[in-house]
Amino acid sequence: MRADAHTLLAAYAAGSLGDVDRGDVEAHLAECAGCRDDLRADREVLAGLALLVAEAPPLRMRDEVLRRVTTTAQLPPLVADGLDERAVSGTGAPDRQGRPSRTLFALAATVLAATAISSTVWGLSSSSQLSEAEQQQAAVRQVLGADDAQTVRAGVTLPDGSTGDDVAVLASDGVDSAVLLPVGLPAAPAGMTWQAWTIHDDVPWPDVVFDATQSTVALDGPVADADAVAVTLEPAGGSPAPTSEPVAVLPLA
Amino acid sequence: MSAVVLVCRKQDQVQSQPRRRPAQGPSADVDEAVLLRGLVADVARGDEQAYAQLYDRLSAIVYGVCRRVLRDPAESEEVAQEALLEIWRTASRYDPTRGGVRSWAVTISHSRAVDRVRSSERRKAREEAVSLPEPPAYDEVSEAAVSAFEVRRVRKAMAQLSDVQRESVRLAFYGGHTHREVAALLDIPLGTVKTRIRDGLLRLRVHLGPELEYEHAGPAPGPTRRDDRTAPREDQDR
Fold first, then answer.
1. Which of A37, A74, A222, B168 is deepest in the core (most CB within 10 A)?
2. Whether B172 and A18 lie within 8 Å, measured CB to CB
3. SS3 string of chain A?
């Protein structure tokens, strides 16, 4: 096997193996440090070959990529406890008001863990509550796992004109799923509720009503073609159309 | 020393590279490798300005790889963008013990380009192409991304390969062909292709080897390991 793996390794580095061979080599690499070293050396050499054919791309590509980066979430680093306060969101380093950035992925992941823990610790208080928690977890997990997950953050302007903390949404066109993090919202007044909307071609489609005490709010969607997610204050039970100006609008890429 | 280098291709493709290149030579390569690693660490923390600098240093390498494999400029641009976004997205997962930043970027780009080629119907048409155009002359390469010194060094190393080794390596890497396709294109046995690629890369390692050390943060791969790897076999020119 060793002789074979080494012969294949160079072809693997050069990207010229088919799927089956590739799988074999990857399996071998997982257990052979010497081959991992060889692969590293081969890849450095191939990076050298790439230098020979380097070609400046069109200027417009730079603008496009730098723009997309602002709404593209990043993977948090792998650390032992699974969460890192320095894990990054798509919104970058300290926010505009100079507060340390809320690490939204880490936050959502914390919620995921906390929800799992609480339903174990507290037991099944009611089957409907457990399935609600499960639904939230599934939605968060789905969006977190999506390749094209984007994080959008927006300030909150309350009906009385004051500004709240930010809210954020994690959305993925690919899995057609979005999760709102209503971090910045205060409790709705008595008789009222917060409601989410997805905006399609300037038309607000009603989405879930929620409580500001919820850490995550899975939206019903559809999300894939939505231009934005918005939040308004509505009478308890929600409304088919918004009855007031949005307190937050989160544009989606 | 140039302060700004403009690379003119077509009207809409002018890209300025406002970057001073350090003095050329091995120590410049070390500086560049260290700089790139620092930028990736910053990018992993969400630093968009660091990413813009990383983009300026890697985009020509990424795009160039895509262009060689995909040929079509529009498709190359698309795949290059995806690769550059993957670099942003997975910066926190970059592992310096697995290789230098450029090596990481090239692996991502090449892998995406090859996946695109293999899934497209144009694969059939590509199988007809045997000879590839020569890589562009040095002056077409953006100087901020790649130094003349580096290009000369790689060219010299490539010249040390036998013609058949070079041909197989180029068809596999630049051409994005599977080794079966290379065997078919050259009408040689599959085993011969694998051997030529392997020996070609080994020979390149010998000639580029000492400089490759600079890419690594930690100690180089153990000397005994490299020694019994670096001598290509006698029958290598098969």
1. B168
2. no
3. CHHHHHHHHHHHHCCCCCHHHHHHHHHHHHCCHHHHHHHHHHHHHHHHHHHHCCCCCCHHHHHHHHHHHCCCCCCCCCCCCCCCCCCCCCCCCCCCCCCCCCCHHHHHHHHHHHHHHHHHHCCCCCHHHHHHHHHHHHHHHHHHHCCCCEEEEEEEECCCCCEEEEEEEEEECCCCEEEEECCCCCCCCCCEEEEEEEEECCEEEEEEEECCCCCCEECCCCCCCCCEEEEEEEECCCCCCCCCCCCEEEECC
The pLDDT tens digits for B1-54 are 444 444 444 444 444 444 445 456 767 777 888 999 999 999 999 999 999 999
Closest residue to B59, CB basis, from A16, A50, A57:
A57
Q: What is the distance in angstroms between the Cα of A144 and the nearest Cα belonging to chain B?
A: 12
> Is some CB atom of chain A closer than 8 A to the CB atom of B98?
yes
For the segment A72-111, what is each residue's pLDDT rounded down to a tens digit?
999 988 764 433 333 333 333 443 333 333 344 455 555 5
Size of interface A-B (CB pairs under 8 A): 233
Q: Give the angle A111-A115-A118 at the CA atoms, nearest 5°.
A: 135
**Residue of chain B whose Cα is closest to the Cα of A72:** B89
**Looking at this predicted complex, what is its ipTM?**
0.77
CB atoms within 10 A of CB A9: 24
Asked if B102's CB is within 8 angstroms of A47's CB, the reply is yes
Query: For position B14, what pLDDT does the model report?
Result: 43
Is residue B33 less than 8 Å (CB to CB) from chain A?
Answer: no
